[in-house]
Amino acid sequence: MKRLALACALTCAVAMFPRGATANDVAPDTLVTLQRDACEQRCAVYRVVIFADGTVLYEGRHFVRRNSLIKSGVSPETLARLIDLLESGGFFELDTDYGYSRAHLCDRMDADGPAAILSVSSRGRSKTVLHSHRCVGAVSDRLTAFEDAVDRAVGAVKWIK
Amino acid sequence: MGFNRKAAVDYADRYWNIPADDGIFWLSNQGVSLDQVRQRNVIGNATWKKAPAVDGWQPFFVNDNSGGEKAVFRRVVAGKAEEILINPWAGIADCAHFLSRCLTAGGVKVEERGVPSLVRTLQARSDTKTLCEQVPTSAAQRVIDTGIFKPGDMIGYFNVDPKGDYGGAKQYAHSTMYVGKINGNKDGGITCHTICRFPGRSWVEDSWWLKPPGHYTYTLIHFSTDDPAANLSQVNNLAGWWQLDYAGRTEYYLIDKSGSATYTKVAPKKGQSFVAAPQGSAYWFMDGGGQITFVWRKSATVEVWTRVGASYKSLINGVTPGSLTKLS
Which candidate from A63, A65, A115 shows the least CB-CB separation from B28? Predict the structure, then answer.
């Protein structure tokens, strides 16, 4: 329930972004990469890259509907809102690893779960976070919400399910 | 020819952590021939190297220490272990193929590499009985504890986790073979590939349920050719309509001589020989002492009928008694 509430809060934050993000809010060095890895329950394995101009590359690898390379795009406003969400949500202040070498950052570890690697560059800052979904805890929930926000921004569901 | 359970389990014991005897293991999108991958980079792996068998390279599935497994060639040279990666965790999907090989070793020729198709194929066979279908952990455990479900029988794992396969699609995601309450496994152990398991040797959970509640529901598929033969005179008395009264409810069972039963809440009419829209269906099993165990498919309810004179008394899930009346 806590995870759901957090996801809802982040979704609402994106939807209600007060100042109306514009193309000017997207720095030219912006690059977002989300890579989702395997789990025993046949989790979708794919990678999404969003470039500063809104170009999206999706590469489906395993257990996805579209098992190929697809070029798509997002609007500058959508990308600006996503970057703002990540910045305001504290993504750049996170640790670099949750659930692998730093399992102590998790309340506990589930038996199975995929990995997600989220990399974001923007306005001269860069951060890559390795996140095992076996990791259970508040920060892990935040990371999951960030990853889901990337999926939603590019509409990844149409390629996965 | 019947199913040789021991041969199937022995095969699993031998191949549980190595590719099957046909020299192939499956990724989600391609089969990998060991003969080929020893010589050529058929997967497109950046770290691929030749691994000739004559140089001592042997294939294994091993712990990748990140929650998954990896397919590798290994050898030991001068006491030092060497390893070549065949494929990392992402994409390995060999469970249905491995089970097909186990069953084939037991005399049941099956060739499936997808879990949904394996489950469908097994359920459609005339020598299997689906004891329960997509039931939760505690219900399936109840069925397993009857002892009717035996080593060599199969389990289908239906994903109910929104984070599970195909982005949380509700479908069969995994399959295993039950090997019994062995090697210290109290709930009952299984064997499978991806991740490879055999009770007492696995590095991950190998109790039949695999994961805590919320990830899967379970379908138990039982090979029935070696079930104990029922007492014929008792079967003749058993067949037909029965009325069960329990916990303030009344239900009507139509029992078939061949080992199945259906129930309805509507009292049968005179001469009625079938139930058009049954509330549920079951298989029944008679032991040497004449005790009958019903396993209801949808709910995994286990109901035991014990003889009382010429009739029976019922006990549902080990706790709820019921009285029985033969109607016709």
Answer: A63
DSSP 8-state code for residue B98: H
Per-residue model confidence as pLDDT tens digits over A112-141: 788 999 999 999 999 999 999 989 999 999
CATH code of residue A72: 3.30.1560
Please tell me the pTM assigned to this model: 0.87
Considering only the beta carbons, identify the residue of A61, A65, A132 that sits closest to B67: A132
Fold annotation for B232-326: Lipocalin (2.40.128)
β-strand A97-98 against A125-132: which pairing, if any? parallel
From chain A, the residues in CB contact with B169 under 8 A are 161
| Amino acid, res. B136 | P
Do the chains contact at B215 and A114, CB–CB below 8 Å?
Answer: no
What residue segments make up the domains of chain B, in order of their start?
5-87, 114-223, 232-326
CB B165 within 8 A of CB B173: yes
Whether residues B91 and A37 touch (CB distance < 8 A) is answered with no
Which position has the higher pLDDT, A133 or B97? Answer: B97
Position B229 pLDDT exceeds 80: yes
ipTM above 0.90, yes or no: no
- Helices H, strands E: what count in chain B? 7, 18
Domain that holds residue A111: 2-160
Nearest CA in chain B to A151: B167
Report whether pLDDT(B189) > 60: yes
Residue A15: CB atoms within 10 Å: 8
Yes or no: say if B220 and B123 are a contact pair by the CB < 8 Å rule.
no
Compute the distance between CA of residue B68 and CA of residue B88 in angstroms, rounded to an integer: 9
Contact A126, A161 (CB under 8 A): no
How far the first Cα of chain A sits from its last, in Å, is 24
CB contact under 8 A, B212 and A111: yes
Q: Which residues of chain B does A132 touch, with a Cβ-Cβ cutoff of 8 Å?
A: 66-67
B44: closest CA of chain A, how far (Å):
13
